[in-house]
Amino acid sequence: MDADYEAVIGLEVHCQLQTESKLFSGARAAFGAPPNTLIDPTVLGLPGALPVVNARAVELAVRAALAFGGQVQERSLFERKHYFYPDLPKGYQISQYERPYCLGGAVTIDLPEGGTRDIGLVRIHLEEDAGKLMHDERGPWSRVDLNRAGVPLIEIVSQPDLRSPAEAYAYLWELRRVLRWVGVSDCEMQEGSLRCDANVSVRRRGEQRLGTRVEIKNLNSLRHVEAAIAYEIARQSALCRAGRAHEIERCTVLWDPDAKVTRPMRGKEDAADYRYFPDPDLPPLRLSAERIAAIRAAMPDLPRQRERWLCERYGIEPAAARELTQERAVADFVEDLIRRGAPPRLAANWTREEALRRVAETGKPIAEALPPALLAAVIALVESGQVARVVAKAELDALLTSGEPPAQYFASRGMIQVQDSAQLAAWVAQAIAAEPKAAAELRAGNDKAIGRLVGVTMKLSGGKAQPQAVQAEIRRQLGL
Ligand code: ADP
Ligand code: MG
């Protein structure tokens, strides 16, 4: 962005709630089932079918609201939003409009330049998803899959508080971290369980009024969101600089990820076009203070609190703490290792280097990919100097498949390091005798020369000497 203009961005995020069934009926909600198998009369909008709100969906929606500090409304309304499209059998979508179930709240983001900022939320509302059209390349027809129709969503609407593509990225990253952490949604953008529309405008710096915004749709990865917003900012600010700001029209555009441009889709419809009105089939959604309190009481801590806890309580590096709190199971895993006696920084390192790699490779939950009891035992052996770190790392997979207890595994393979100081002294003496030049250099103050002596000693020991002990013994024998 240049010195004269600034970007203003507000995001609307649709997030699929992790429920067994749909928002207004018992039809199953799942990803990847054969088309049109997850349907029932309510989903199809057949005459006489009546919607009944899914209590679990409401509970998850309230969890999301509480996680962001929003004000949960004791009374909210379901309204019909009308439009005609083949993926919408009823001819309207049940949503919330005038009275959403949550107002306000904020998402605390990490700023690219360091520090944090609260991005305000306008509202969160509940709504049902529509079906999906599949355009068939073999002919001039499309097919419709209604599996997704009626699936529960929340829409999280931010204030226009974001100022750059990187901030928009950070906002979505944090939103996803929190929603996954509290078990509201899996937020898989590729599967459509997190979808984002970006509203972008530019204005002269110092200007208070908002400029005309363009809404970008079809953003199905965090990188696409970032790229599309950057493109749109560049396009709009170029028009402004050329004195053609009036050419920026309020409209909806689609992001084309291959051509890396936005393309006009339609003019923006007004709320009036949707003919919203309260759904006569559904009573107002009432959330008693007791019910909200019960949901609050069942909430876990939040990732940002846990991140701070890992840093302050255990001295784990901020970058590591951030990585380890992307998933609650991972953060719990680290704390499990610490409870089993692993020094916190080692617990963090081994989790990042070994456990997370295995999760990425196998797709298994972390505690299955690498059982914490086993890893804690390995860390203890390394920490006490009995097993070399490199050996432990190299053997970890074989150790896992062997099913043997770690101490027995390493002992039976001759991988326990020798602690016997007389034996160590003999190997070191032999190494110094074999490498007089390196010994002389080290004595003369060239610290790097110690590597050669350590290497020879390790070889003499068959890998069983402990490198730190070897270094100390070399210096002792050379009188350093
Ligand atoms: P709509 O009902 O058309 O979706 P809303 O008023 O609900 O409009 O706003 C939708 C989103 O657009 C919000 O996230 C809001 O912050 C954002 N927004 C509104 N005006 C602007 C603007 N001028 N520039 C950028 N974002 C904006
Ligand atoms: Mg909108």
Your description of this structure?
With 480 residues, the chain is α+β, with helices and mostly antiparallel strands. It has 3 domains: 5-291, no CATH class; 303-412; 421-477, Arc Repressor Mutant, subunit A. It contains 17 helices and 17 strands. Helix 4 links the parallel strand 13 and strand 14. The longest helix has 20 residues, at 222-241. Residues 8-12, 157-160, 199-201, 210-211, 213 line the site of adenosine-5'-diphosphate (ADP).
Topology overview:
Layout: E1 5-16, H1 41-44, H2 55-67, E2 71-72, E3 75-76, E4 79-82, E5 92-95, E6 102-103, E7 106-110, E8 116-128, E9 132-135, E10 142-145, E11 152-158, H3 165-181, E12 194-204, E13 214-219, H4 222-241, E14 251-256, E15 261-267, E16 277-278, E17 285-286, H5 289-297, H6 303-314, H7 318-324, H8 328-339, H9 344-362, H10 366-369, H11 372-383, H12 389-402, H13 406-412, H14 421-434, H15 436-443, H16 450-460, H17 467-477
Parallel strand pairs: 13-14
Antiparallel strand pairs: 1-11, 1-12, 2-6, 3-17, 4-5, 4-16, 6-8, 7-8, 8-11, 9-10, 12-13, 14-15
Helix pairs in contact: 3-4, 6-7, 7-9, 8-9, 8-11, 14-16, 14-17, 16-17
The structure holds adenosine-5'-diphosphate (ADP) and magnesium ion (MG).
Residues 8-12, 157-160, 199-201, 210-211, 213 line the site of adenosine-5'-diphosphate (ADP).
Key features of this structure:
480 residues, Arc Repressor Mutant, subunit A, ten-stranded mixed sheet, elongated
